[in-house]
Structures are given as structure tokens and as C-alpha cells.
TrEMBL record:
Claim: Transcription is one of the keywords in the record: no
Originating organism: Nilaparvata lugens (Brown planthopper)
The keyword Repeat belongs to this UniProt entry's keyword annotation: yes
Domain EF-hand: 7-42
Protein name listed in UniProt: Myosin light chain alkali
Subunit structure: Myosin is a hexamer of 2 heavy chains and 4 light chains.
Signal peptide: none
Keyword set, alphabetical order: Motor protein, Muscle protein, Myosin, Repeat
One Gene Ontology term of the molecular function aspect: calcium ion binding
Length: 116
């Protein structure tokens, strides 16, 4: 893959082997989202399903060669939030502008907002 550096391939290989629980060179599609998150991405459930992830274990598997294009495509996704995006969002709740927010508001945000 031209858009995946050799360092990224090495990191992806390492993470893939961790999630290859059977040791046969295959990843259960159920763990696709976990693997992408372990590689520093923040995919939505919708994106994971679009890329071939499943909701049940044992339905589908990927080899590493099949996973690399999926990894590449997930990296290109523009809906991925980055660290700075989350900090900006949390600053909305910092009323005193001192880097702190009310714990109840944080709890509300985490429990009620986000992907459904």
C-alpha cells in the first residue's frame, strides 16, 4: 500500500498479531473496531460495519493482506475526531475557563451524547 508507511505496516502487523487470538493469521471481524482503535484511529460503529466488521464473533475473518486496505481506508475517513476536537468540545463546558468542569456535566456528556 503506497499510502501506508513501513512503520505503520509494522505497527499494524504487531497489533494484528495480538488480536489474532487463534494464531492462524486471521482476525475475527468482530475485533476490527478494537484493532483500529489500538492503532490510534477512532472509527464509528457505522464505519466499522461498512469496512466489514461484524457484531458477532465467528461470522467473518480477515487475513493481514485483507486488513491493510481496510486500515488504509479507515485512516482516510474524515469523520475521525482528533484529540484537539475533543478538547475543544470539552472547553464548552468549562464555565470558569480554568480547565475544570463539573463532574455531573461530564457524566451527562458521556452517557447521553455520541454515537447511537
Amino acid at each position: 500500500m503506497a499510502d501506508v508507511s513501513s512503520d505503520d505496516v509494522e505497527r499494524a502487523t504487531f497489533a494484528f498479531n495480538i488480536y489474532d487470538t487463534e494464531g492462524g493469521g486471521n482476525l475475527d471481524a468482530f475485533f476490527l473496531g478494537d484493532l483500529l482503535r489500538a492503532l490510534g484511529l477512532n472509527p464509528t460503529q457505522g464505519l466499522i460495519e461498512k469496512l466489514g466488521g461484524t457484531k458477532k464473533k465467528g461470522e467473518k475473518t480477515f487475513t493481514f493482506e485483507e486488513f491493510l486496505p481496510i486500515f488504509s481506508q479507515a485512516r482516510k475517513d474524515k469523520d475521525n475526531g482528533v484529540y484537539e476536537d475533543f478538547i475543544e468540545c470539552l472547553k464548552l463546558y468549562d464555565k470558569a475557563e480554568n480547565g475544570l468542569m463539573v463532574g455531573a456535566e461530564l457524566s451527562h456528556i458521556l452517557l447521553s451524547l455520541g454515537e447511537r
